[in-house]
Amino acid sequence: MLAIISVVVSNAQLDTSKQTPESSELWEPVPRVVSAPPSAPPSDAIVLFDGKDFSKWKSAKPGGSIQWTIADGAMTVKGGSGDIETVEQFDDYQLHIEFRTPAEVKGSSQGRGNSGIFMQGKYELQVLDSYNNRTYSNGQAGSIYKQTMPLVNASRKPGEWQVYDVVYTSPKFNKDGFPTHPAYITVLHNGVVIQNHTPIYGTTPYVGQPKFEVHGKGPIRLQDHSNPTSFRNIWIRPI
Ligand code: MG
Questions:
Q1: How far is the CA of 226 from the centre of ligand 1 (A)?
Q2: Residues of the chain with pLDDT under 70
Q3: Which of the residues 50, 119, 146, 203 could staple to 123 if both were Cys, CB 3.0 to 4.6 A apart?
Q4: Is the pTM of the predicted complex or chain greater than 0.90?
Q5: 37-238 in CATH: which number?
Q6: CA distance 120 to 14
């Protein structure tokens, strides 16, 4: 904001004949340095899962314990054991998460590789095997569940690792509980833009309409939808 204000100038200064190239240069503040190696999280990322343990996670059931499994650097849903969520809570962030739907194809439509990633524990970015698997478009992989379908279907084959890179902004509420702006989400699926600054209109229930509930920070929640979908290399950068 300071940078914007500093270039808003008087009408006299709008006379370009009186300006120099230097008059519109900003030298302060200086963006801090983040190293971004090609095959590792950025240096300022919070690593939520590095393939070894559930230390950054807990059961989404109060008092419950995690029964999902870890093998070969990936965690896998144990069907029926319940959702898991991060211990730490977040509002605005960049999230990187890799997922793999089962190589052995069972079921169809919503019953195939179903899981989900809930922003702030409330708003589901759908995880599904959407490779040659027709379902309702606002419920396929990369949809904001039951709201906004992905721009395209960038799904890889069952059993292949896939990536979601997410930029997410929390909704804001006034003191009366009205949302003054919705949540916004941008998603790249395997490097392809599938959600472009998409507004999220509230919660993402299976039945019924989205609802806005006033909330603060929330966890990243991963869904147990009975299918043994896996996740790995999960990191987040609050922004
Ligand atoms: Mg789901």
A1: 10
A2: 1-14
A3: 119
A4: yes
A5: 2.60.120.560
A6: 44
CA of 109 to the centre of ligand 1 (A): 11
Q: How far is the CA of 93 from the centre of ligand 1 (A)?
A: 21
CA of 224 to the centre of ligand 1 (A): 8
pLDDT given at position 1: 41
Distance (angstroms) between ligand 1 centre and the Cα of 124 equals: 7
Which residues 6+ apart lie within 8 Å of 101 measured at CB? 112, 113, 127, 128, 129, 158, 159, 227, 229
The Cα 110–Cα 129 span in angstroms is 8
Q: Across all residues in the chain, what is the average pLDDT? A: 94
Strand pairing report for 93-100 and 84-86: unpaired
- Residue whose pair of structure tokens reads 């996670």 in the numeric block: 57
Contact between 115 and 84 (Cβ < 8 Å): no
